[in-house]
Design brief:
Serine Threonine Protein Phosphatase 5, Tetratricopeptide repeat, 3 domains, 8-stranded mixed sheet, 14 strands
């Protein structure tokens, strides 16, 4: 954008802001790539959040994503304050609290911050909610029932560990040493405290997904103190995510920050699976009030295995691992490292196979992740609808680098879309290899929509804000 246009947009946006016409600010600025000017981007974020006090999740996600995209914004208290607002409106009070503490620190350094009074008011609201979250814990009877369950099914607890960096959260990790009598030649680590919090499971899941969970991890018998500390920290970090983000964790969720999970391994992420090497009753503990806590095992994966899981599902990945131990091995076999096509299997247009993958996106600089319908990733349908959103949708994880692109085949029914399991986060390059016709559109600006026409080709269409697919 030219400087003259930027200045005109700023002036008009300030006029609209003075009259509290926030929706019109969004309409004014959304057609432009506001990342070119930090002040203009801040105006759009502010408008997003002013509109979002009604908990409009899509707008809130757009605001949060934009806040993350602006370089050097983390040192500006104005930006940090807006990020805290986004977290507050999304009821992610722990993250809002941390950002507001950072706001106070930045403001104390004398940086320009006209919203100081508003930030102080928000801090009081957030602190009250943060204290409520931190106060949640098992009752003594619940705690005793849980520890009895762990001892009965996993073994005698010899040590209770905690993550000292986060003392506010009452989460401990029970350490259970190898027990020859039980045939367990490995350490078992089990969290106690995560399940005291009721997770915000989407209503559409009904009773299919447990609202309370604890985590289990198996480690070799010869681990050192460094590995023990890592295990405690890693379990607590994964366990805190649904609490801090007011979301949920369940079977098949992926956790990654884009780096190896610990030094000296290429294991890149972790997923939650059913408890291995334990009796059937070990997976669920019934509390005195008849509510239940589900135990999931944390199982590390290589990047290629994560890619395979996104394309084919966790069940297909597990089928490739009958010989892999449930005990964490930093150097275990990567079952998807040399994924090859069967001799009689020929590639076809729209195939979701990961083999012979062409690199389409690494040089585009738009992010490596996207959201796609399983009609595409698992059934091999071509893309019939694509839209680039200022939204970073995570499925219980720490994956970063969202391109903003959403892909659907066009054959999804309303019933199909109502099940979140039918949509998944995957690498953008996978979709490009399934349907390379999307590649010329990938650098189009946010809010771009392209639809496959009667001629069989994708065409950019005018933005329709009432698009039922995204409602």
């Amino acid at each position: 954008m030219k400087k003259v246009l930027i200045n005109k947009l700023k002036k008009k946006a300030e006029e609209l802001y003075s009259e509290q016409r926030h929706e019109e600010i969004i309409e004014l600025l959304i057609p432009y790539d506001v990342r070119e000017d930090q002040e203009l981007a801040l105006m759009l974020v502010r408008a997003f959040l002013d509109v979002s006090e009604n908990k409009d999740d899509d707008i809130l996600d757009s605001a949060e994503m934009l806040l993350m995209l602006i370089p050097n914004a983390e040192g500006d208290p104005r930006w940090t304050y807006q990020l805290a607002r986004a977290y507050y409106f999304k009821e992610r009070y722990c993250e809002a609290y941390r950002e507001l503490l950072n706001v106070r620190k930045l403001a104390a350094e004398g940086k320009d911050f006209p919203e100081q009074n508003e930030a102080n008011e928000l801090f009081e609201l957030v602190k009250a909610e943060y204290d409520k979250v931190c106060a949640v814990s098992y009752s003594k009877k619940e705690y005793d029932a849980l520890t009895d369950h762990i001892v009965r099914h996993f073994g005698a607890i010899v040590n209770m560990c905690s993550q000292k960096e986060y003392p506010a959260f009452k989460v401990e990790v029970a350490e259970i040493p190898p027990a020859d009598g039980r045939g367990r030649d490995y350490y078992t680590y089990v969290t106690i405290g995560i399940g005291a919090h009721i997770m915000k499971v989407p209503f559409s899941f009904g009773d299919m997904v447990p609202e309370r969970c604890e985590l289990v991890m198996y480690l070799p018998a010869d681990i050192d103190d460094e590995m023990r500390r890592w295990a405690v920290s890693y379990l607590c970090t994964i366990g805190r995510l649904p609490i801090e983000r007011n979301t949920w964790s369940s079977y098949g969720h992926i956790f990654s920050n884009g780096r190896p999970i610990f030094k000296g391994t290429k294991l890149f992420a972790s997923t939650l699976i059913e408890i291995q090497d334990a009796d059937e009753e070990a997976s669920v503990c019934t509390l005195p009030n008849e509510e239940s806590v589900t135990f999931y095992q944390v199982f590390p994966l290589y990047k290629e295995e994560v890619d395979f899981k996104f394309a084919h599902g966790l069940a297909a990945l597990i089928e490739k691992m009958p010989h892999i131990s449930a005990v964490i091995d930093p150097e275990r076999e990567n079952v998807c490292l040399n994924e090859e096509r069967k001799p009689d299997e020929k590639p076809r247009k729209g195939s979701p196979l990961l083999v012979e993958e062409t690199d389409y996106v690494s040089k585009l600089g738009i992010g490596e992740l996207c959201c796609a319908s399983k009609r595409i990733t698992e059934e091999g349908c071509l893309v019939g609808y694509m839209r680039r959103n200022l939204i970073d949708k995570e499925i219980g994880g720490e994956l970063s680098g969202d391109s903003g692109w959403l892909f659907m085949s066009g054959f999804e029914t309303a019933e199909y879309l109502s099940d979140p399991n039918n949509m998944e986060i995957c690498r953008l390059n996978i979709i490009c290899n399934i349907d390379s016709e999307i590649v010329p559109f990938l650098k189009e600006p946010y809010n771009t929509v392209a639809v496959r026409g009667n001629d069989g080709k994708l065409h950019i269409e005018p933005n329709d804000p009432t698009d039922a697919l995204l409602s």
